[in-house]
Each structure stands twice: as C-alpha cells, then as structure tokens.
Design brief:
alpha/beta, single chain, elongated, 196 residues
Length: 196
C-alpha cells in the first residue's frame, strides 16, 4: 500500500514538473521571437520582411496579439489572417503589399504607411491612426469604425464600400479617392471640401 502511494506521488510530481517546464519553454520561445522581431524591425530586405511576418504569425498561434514595435517595415509581402490587438505600431511601413482577413483592434498606428497596398476584408477597429497614408492604395470594404483618422491621406485611394462609422475625420485628405458606397454614418469633423 505504501509503495503504491509513493509511486502515485512521484507520478503527480512528474506531471507537474513537465507542465511547468512546457510553460517555461513556451514563455521563452515567445520572448525570443518578440526580441527577434524588434531587432529586425527597421530592416527592409525581402527575406527579412517575410521572416518578420512569419514571426508575427507564429506569435499569433502562441496567443500573442500584442505587438509593440516602432518603425516596423514589412514591404512587398502578403499578410493574411493576422490579428493585432492593443498594440503600438507607430511608423509601420507596409507598402506595396497585400493585406487580407487581418484585424487591427485598439491599435496605435501613428504615421503608418499603407501606400500602394491592396487591402481587403480587413478591420481597423478603434485604432489611433493619425497621419496614416493610404496613397494609391486599394481598400475595398475595409472597416475603420471608431478609429481616429485625423490628417490621414487617402490620395488616389480606392476605398469604395469602406466603413468610416464614428471615425474622427478631421483634416482627412480624400483627393481623387473613390468613395463609392462608403459609409460615413456618425463620422466626426467630415467636411465636403475634404471629399473633393
């Protein structure tokens, strides 16, 4: 009877030790990937840009949706199904890329540049996007609801069927933009002169 009890105790302790070691391993893996992403953030080489997106996907699979990286450059890549939440990605440069089925929620994207990027089925919900640039971008049906787009530039952008509900649109530049079927319900500081 005593031997069985001791074997059971050793088994329980073994399971707990393995569980703790697995948690530590996952924590270290997350930390290493986040550090690597920060180290490579400003490099703009095709291989490095794909590596950065791969790191973000793997971090998403590990439950990480919070990215705090300034001056992250990810040009000429495909971004599909990425989830970014409660993050700070100031000066993000994601130009000449394809973004689809991606969500940015409550994320700060000050001075981000999405120029010449194709964006579809993507959400920018409650984001702080002052001075963001969507110059020559195609963003059909993108949802910007509750976002601050103050002084954003949508010059020559195709934003038809996009949703700007409850957005701050102070001094936004929609020069030559395609706004067909765009939803501006409840938008603040929208002036007719900005739409021309």
């Amino acid at each position: 009877v005593e031997a069985h009890g001791m074997v059971f105790d050793i088994l329980i302790i073994g399971v707990v030790v393995v569980w703790l070691d697995t948690r530590r391993s996952i924590y270290n893996e997350r930390k290493n990937m986040i550090n690597e992403l920060n180290d490579m953030s400003y490099l703009d080489l095709p291989e490095v840009n794909h590596r950065k997106i791969g790191l973000m996907y793997r971090l998403n699979k590990l439950g990480v949706m919070n990215f705090n990286v300034d001056e992250l450059i990810i040009s000429s890549v495909r971004v599909n199904g990425l989830n970014v939440k409660d993050s700070t990605l100031n000066n993000l440069k994601i130009m000449k890329s394809l973004i689809s089925e991606t969500s940015f929620t409550e994320t700060t994207l000050l001075r981000a540049d999405f120029s010449e990027t194709q964006i579809k089925s993507t959400l920018f919900l409650g984001c702080k996007m002052k001075k963001v640039a969507f110059i020559n971008a195609t963003a059909h049906g993108v949802d910007y609801s509750h976002s601050n787009l103050e002084r954003a530039k949508f010059i020559n952008a195709d934003v038809q069927s996009s949703i700007f509900k409850e957005c701050n649109l102070r001094e936004v530049n929609f020069e030559n933009a395609n706004l067909r079927n765009a939803n501006f319900r409840g938008a603040k500081y929208l002036k007719a002169a900005n739409l021309l």
